Amino acid sequence: MSKQSFQNKQNHQVIFNAIVESSNDAIITKTLSGEITSWNKSAECIFGYSEQEAIGQPITMLIPPDRNDEELHIIDRIGRGEKIDHFETIRIRRDGKRIVISATISPLKDESGKIIGASKIARDISHTKKIEEHPMSAVYLRAIGQLALVSITDRHGNITMANQKFCEVSGFSIEELIGRNHRVLRSGEHPKSFWVEMWATVAKGCTWHREVCNRTKKGELYWVDSTIVPIKNADGKIEGYLSVRVDITERKNQETALRMRLKESKCLYTIRRQMLPQTGIKRICRLIIKELMNAMQYPEITAIKIEIGSNLYTSANYTNTLTNALCSDIVVDNNTKCGELQVYYSQDKPFLLPDEQNLINCITEDLGTWLGRKRAEERINYLATHDALTSLPNRNLLQERIARLMTRNYRNSQQAAILFIDLDYFKVVNDSFGHDIGDLLLKQVSKRLLSCVRREDTVARQGGDEFIILLENITNKPDAGIVAQVILKKIAQPFYIADKELRISASIGITIFPEDGDNVNTLLKNSDIAMSYAKADDRNGYQFFSPKMNLLISEKYYLKTELHNALQRNELQLFYQPVISMPDCRIKSMEVLLRWQHHKLGLISPLKFIPLAEESGLIASIGEWVLKTACSQIKVWQAKGYQVPQLAINLSARLFRHKTLVTDISRVLKETDVKAHCLAVEITESMLVHNVNEAKKILDQLSALGLKILMDDFGTGYSSLSYMKHFPINTLKIDQTFVQDITTDPNDAAITAAIIAMARSLNLEVIAEGVETKEQVAILTRQGCKRFQGYYFCRPLSVLEIENKLPQALPEVKS
User: Fold this and answer.
1) Which residue(s) pair with 213 in the sheet?
2) Helix intervals (H) in 504-599
C-alpha cells in the first residue's frame, strides 16, 4: 500500500468515526458469537453502559431472558447474509428498565467478503409505543387522524411517527418524513425568535400552542393550528414530543382576504374622500401612492409609478429596473386613455390575485372619473342647481336662497313671500298632445313667470307642473296678492305651440315670512297647503296660508281614516226626504240621503265625507252599500203592505264614472228582487261636461234598465238645452239657490219660471227643492210647478220616522 493510499484510508476512517459518534441512533457492532466490538455515544445514552463497560461483553446482556431465542434467530439470518430492517423488540438498560427499540441489523464482511459479524443501528421508540399501546390510543388516533396532522418526534425534533393526514397535507411520504427534522416544513414566514420561544416552552415541559405557516414538499404554503405536548418517561424526563396540527389554511386565506378587503376599503375611502373638485392632481397622486402601498399584501417591497399625460409620480423606492408589476389604464370621458398606474414588488413575491388587481382597477377607474369630472366642473355645478328643461333654479338652489334671505331679513325685520304655483289642466295637455308639447308649454310658462317679478326675485321649478316664486323684501302682505293676480292673468292668456292654441290656469298658495314660518321647510310646506286650498276652490285663484288650514288638513286625514271603519261599525245610515205632489199633497217619491253617525264626533255632513270617499276610493263600496240598503228597505216596506214611492239615489261624480256602475246596479236589483222602476238616480250637470259621449252611454244604459234619471241642482251649471235633447233625462230639480229668494228677487222668479216652462215644453217633470215657506210654494205653483221638496213639507227622516208617514197623506197646504 502506498503512503498516499494509507493516508486516504486514515482520512476516511476519521470521517466515518465522526459520523458514528454524531448519530442520534445507537450504532453497535458485534462478532458472530455475540461479542460487542464497538459502542457509540448514542448507545451509551440509550442503554446506559459506557463504551469501556460494553466493549468485549456479550450482546445478550441487553436481551431479556425471555427473548434469548430472538438473538439466535438474528445470528442465523445474518450468517446467511440477510439484512433485517426496522425490527422492533425489547431490550434491557443497565438500570434494568425495559425499553422498546427499532433496529436495523446488517452483516459485517471482511475484505474477502466473508461475514465476520453484524452492525446494528437502534433507536429508542419507547415513548411512541407508550402512546400507541395506551388503551384508548388506537381510537384516539383514528379519530383525530381524520382531521388532524399528528406526528411524534424525539427530543431533538426528529420525526419518528406521522399519520396519513400529515402526509396528505405536507406532500411528503412516510419514508421521507421518518428520521428527518421538523425544520424541513419551515416556510420562512416566521422569524427566528418564533422558534426560539417554541423550544424554550416545550423544553420546560410546557404545552406550546400557536398558528404556524408551513411549506409543502412542492413549496406551497399552508397554515396549521399547532399544539406540541412534551412526552415524559417515568422519571419525568422529556423523551420526545407529540404534535397535533389542524389545517386552517382555508380560514387563514379568508382572514387574509378579509384583511385585504378592509385595507382596500380604507384605501379607497381615504382616496375618494380627497377626490374633490378643488384638490390638485399632484396631491391626489401622492395620496394614492401612500395609501395603495399600505393596502398591498407586502407594503415593504411595494413600489408605484403613476403616469398622467406627461407627468410622472413615483414612490421613493421606484426604479426603472423593476419588472414584477400589475398595471391598469387611467381612462377619462369617451374611453380615452390619459395615463397608467403601475404597482411593482421589488422581490419575487406573488401578487394576491384577483384582489390586488381589482383594487388597482378601482383606483384608476375612480381617478379617471375624477379627472373627467374636473373638466366638467362648471357644467355639473350649474346642473346641480338648475332645472334642465327651463334653466330656472331648482328646489335646492331655491332653498339656499330662502335660507340666506331669512338670515338677512331677520336682521333687517323685512318681509318676504313664497308663491307656490301649480298649473291647472296641465295633465290634460300632456295626455292630449304628448310630453313634447307639455315641455314646450312649461318653457313658455317659465318665461311668463319671469316677466311677472323683479330681477332680485327668484322663479324656481319645483318639478312637474309646479313652480315656486320667492319675492324678496315686500312692503306688506297684499303686495304678494297683487303679484299673484298678475301671474294668474298672464297664465290665463292662450299659449300658441305647434299650431295649437292651449289654455291653462294656475292655483297659487302664498306664505309670508316670518308670519307663516321661521324655517325653509315650514314656509314651503305651508305654501303647498295654501295652494291645495286654492285648487279646491274652483282653481284659477290664490289663497294666503292660515293656521286653520293645518287643522283642517289634520281633520281631513282623521276623517279619511275613520271612514274606512264606518261600514264595519254600522255608522252609515239612510234618511229619506219626501217629494210632495200638489195639490193632492201626497208623497210622490223620496230622495235617499246618506248620513254618517260617528261614534265620537256625532253626525258628519255628507259635504265633508263624500269628497273624502271619492279621494280614498271608498265611494264604490259606499255607493253599493247605499244601493243595497235602499233596495232591501223597499222589500221590507212592500212586505208590510206599504205603497212605496220611488226612491231617488244620488250618484257622485266619481261613482258615476266608475266602470262597473251599470253592472253593479243591475246585479243589486237582481239580488234584492227589486224592480227598476222603483228607483231613480240623481246626477248633476257637471258630470256631463267632461266626456259627453261616455256620459250619454252610461245614462242610456241606466235608462234601458228601467231607472228614471233626475238632473239635480239644475240652473247652477251650464244649463244647456242640448242635455235635454240628447240625454235620457226624466226630471229637472230646480236648485234651492233660486227658490230661496224667489219671493224677493225678480231674477230668481224669472229663472224658475223659465226652467218650468222649458221642462213643460220638453215633457219633463220639475221638482223645486229647498222649499221652506208657503209663499214660495204659492209662486212656484202659479208658475206651473207641481212637485216640491223641502223643510216646509218634511225634513229628512229615519226609516222608522218615514215609515209612519207612508200610509197617510200630509195635511193640505193652503195657498
Assistant:
1) 223
2) 520-536, 547-566
- 605 burial (CB, 10 Å; 0-12 / 13-18 / 19+) is exposed
Tallying the residues shown for the chain, one arrives at 815
Reference 300, options 240, 342, 344; nearest CA is 344
Closest CA to 731 of 585, 575, 588: 588
Question: In the chain, how long is the greatest CA-to-CA distance?
Answer: 171
Strand pairing of 26-31 and 36-39?
A: antiparallel
Coil/strand/helix, residue 22: helix
What count of other Cβ atoms lies within 10 Å of the Cβ of residue 693? 7
Cell of 110: 471482511
Cα separation of 685 and 78, whole Å? 130
Indicate the pairing of strand 646-650 with strand 586-598.
Answer: parallel
Which helix or strand (DSSP H or E) is residue 126 part of?
Answer: helix 126-133
Helix/strand/coil for 412: helix
How far apart, in Å, are the Cα atoms of 181 and each of 151, 156, 157, 186, 220? Answer: 12, 8, 5, 10, 19
Number of Cβ atoms within 10 Å of the Cβ of 807: 10
- Please give the single-letter amino acid code of residue 425: Y
In angstroms, the CA 541 to CA 531 distance is 9
3-state class of 193 per DSSP? helix
How far CA 734 is from CA of 710, 719, 739, 744, in Å, comes to 11, 11, 8, 17
What is the torsional sign of CA 780, 784, 787, 793?
positive
Query: Which pLDDT score, from 0 to 100, does residue 73 have?
Result: 83
Q: What is the DSSP string of 514-537?
A: TTT-SSHHHHHHHHHHHHHHHHHT
User: Is 146 in contact with 165 (CB distance < 8 Å)?
Assistant: yes
Phi, psi of 539 (to 5 degrees): 60, -175
pLDDT at 762: 86
Residue whose grid cell is 389604464: 329
Q: Check: CB of residue 432 under 8 Å from CB of residue 441.
A: no
Strand partners, 326: 343
Q: At 746, which amino acid appears?
A: P
Question: Is omega for the bond preceding 514 within 30 degrees of 0, making it cis?
Answer: yes
**Distance of alpha carbon 306 from alpha carbon 315, whole angstroms:** 9
Instruction: With beta carbons less than 8 A apart as the criterion, state whether 214 and 185 touch.
Output: yes
pLDDT of residue 589: 93
Q: For residues 446 and 461, give the distance between their C-alpha atoms in angstroms, rounded to a whole number.
A: 8
For the chain, how many helices (H) and strands (E)? 30, 30
Give the whole-angstrom CA distance, residue 779 versus residue 753.
9
CA distance 540 to 560: 26
Compute the distance between CA of residue 118 and CA of residue 105 in angstroms, rounded to an integer. 7
Do 200 and 227 form a contact (C-beta atoms < 8 A)?
no
E-strand spans in 23-136? 26-31, 36-39, 84-92, 98-109, 115-124
Q: Is residue 473 helix, strand or coil?
A: strand
Question: Which residues in the chain land under pLDDT 70?
Answer: 1-23, 127-145, 234, 378, 410-412, 551-552, 690, 716-724, 807-815
Q: In the numeric block, which cell numbers belong to residue 69?
A: 431465542
Cα 575–chain centre separation: 52
Sign of the torsion angle spanned by Cα atoms 22, 23, 24, 29: negative
CA–CA separation, 590 vs 585, rounded Å?
A: 14
